[in-house]
């Protein structure tokens, strides 16, 4: 159902995925994963930090979903950055997930200096086949430039906060120019951008919800996006965005809603980076 994107390493990734942040107990997990899988989601996004990798892995077992039918992302948390700790933590994640590999492994946050060692571990994990693709999360342009000075291969995905109140145009342009797929976390601004009047007007015109309008905007921008919900009707709604399209004017209206407003943390821009660049 979701479009497939081809990553710079040649692997394919569904453009739309399912976010598992704050989906915790096994029953809620199973219900959410079941609903999402039935509605056609194939990408499932977790992280060490979410503390739910074991529940994610168990859900696929309980629901009899075969490994080759899904695309699984996890992220190495700040606490596990560094060469050996990253490797050990990924092996631990795989155990919890009951999997031999993840499809996409991300550095969760840019931590100065540490991400060079973490990245070396990622290149190694990819060689060993424990991660099919490797990328980063919450990296700003300066972090990517810094990483490029030492990396043997560059990230193929950069997952960042992205929604109509934080459109990140310069970063999107940089990612695109460097063959890095941008992936939106909190594509719906954690639900906080759903009542914007301009979006309600567009939604009414198309007979869709504002959530569907926002996801369609992500789709037409060519970025990957991973909405989260624990409600089956919303999970379904968020996958039902392939039967209409936004006009260039409507896209522009949504682009114009940017307020540089983050719902989450600001990625660090330390003296060290500023000094280097
Ligand atoms: P819930 O899980 O209770 O459905 P994001 O993906 O940007 O982080 O946003 C997720 C938030 O938005 C969650 O709080 C989720 O709540 C809510 N949400 C997800 N999809 C929809 C939808 N279609 N309509 C309204 N709220 C939604």
From TrEMBL:
CDD domains the UniProt entry points to: AKR_AKR1-5-like
Pfam family, one: Aldo_ket_red
Superkingdom of the source species: Bacteria
UniProt keyword annotation of Cytoplasm present: no
Record key words, sorted: NADP, Oxidoreductase
Domain NADP-dependent oxidoreductase, first and last residues per copy: 25-258
Protease as UniProt keyword: no
Family of this protein: Belongs to the aldo/keto reductase family.
Identification of the protein by name: Aldo/keto reductase
């Amino acid at each position: 159902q979701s479009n497939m994107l081809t990553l710079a390493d040649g692997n394919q990734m569904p453009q739309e995925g399912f976010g598992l942040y704050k989906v915790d107990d096994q029953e809620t997990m199973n219900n959410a994963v079941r609903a999402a899988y039935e509605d056609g989601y194939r990408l499932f996004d977790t992280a060490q930090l979410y503390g739910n990798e074991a529940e994610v892995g168990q859900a696929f077992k309980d629901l009899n979903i075969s490994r080759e039918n899904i695309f699984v992302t996890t992220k190495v948390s700040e606490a596990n950055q560094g060469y050996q700790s990253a490797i050990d933590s990924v092996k631990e994640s795989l155990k919890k997930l009951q999997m031999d590999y993840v499809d996409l492994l991300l550095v969760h946050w840019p931590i100065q200096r540490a991400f060079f060692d973490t990245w070396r571990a990622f290149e190694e994990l990819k060689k060993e086949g424990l991660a099919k693709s490797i990328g980063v999360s919450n990296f700003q342009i300066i972090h990517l430039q810094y990483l490029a000075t030492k990396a043997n291969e560059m990230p193929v995905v950069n997952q960042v906060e992205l929604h109509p109140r934080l459109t990140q145009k310069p970063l999107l342009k940089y990612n695109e120019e460097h063959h890095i797929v941008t992936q939106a976390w909190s594509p719906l601004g954690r639900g906080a951008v759903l009542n914007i009047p301009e979006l309600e007007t567009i939604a009414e015109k198309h007979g869709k919800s504002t959530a569907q309008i926002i996801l369609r905007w992500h789709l037409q921008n060519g970025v990957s996006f991973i909405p989260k919900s624990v409600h089956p009707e919303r999970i379904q709604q968020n996958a039902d965005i392939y039967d209409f399209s936004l006009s260039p004017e409507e896209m522009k209206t949504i682009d114009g809603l940017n307020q540089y407003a983050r719902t989450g943390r600001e990625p660090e821009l330390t003296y060290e980076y500023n000094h280097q660049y």
